Amino acid sequence: MEDTLISAKKDEETVQEVLPDNIRPWGRYDVIDGDDGFQVKRITINPGQRVSYQRHQQREEFWLIVKGDATVTLNDVDTDHGKGEVIHVKLQDKHRIGNSGENDLVFIEVQLGDYFGEDDIERFEDAYGREGTTTPHGN
Length: 139
Description:
Layout: H1 2-8, H2 15-18, E1 23-24, E2 27-35, E3 38-45, E4 53-55, E5 59-67, E6 70-74, E7 77-81, E8 86-89, E9 95-99, E10 105-113, E11 122-125
Antiparallel strand pairs: 1-2, 2-3, 3-10, 4-11, 5-8, 5-10, 6-7, 6-9
């Protein structure tokens, strides 16, 4: 249905302006739980894609890989991870996760902190032209 919506656009809007908030150029995330002090997301990264190299000022994250193969960059060090492994991203750590496999990478992200807005992202590198921005689609 999203493809139909996108192809039906006749003006000069970009695909990014049409995408739902939880869809990203690299895949998607879905918030599955949250309360004061925590938020839980299910994140899917498409094969060959990765999120921006970033850090957060107001939250730390724990990633539990449940499907696929990941390459994680944590403070400029790359490591490979697979199903069942947990990665701890501490407050203000520079971090990125990418899909190094041929199938979807799926992981559960548990965020702990005081604020979980998507604008708590400082991007250092990004394959989708969003360096230095806090907007999800780089607009």
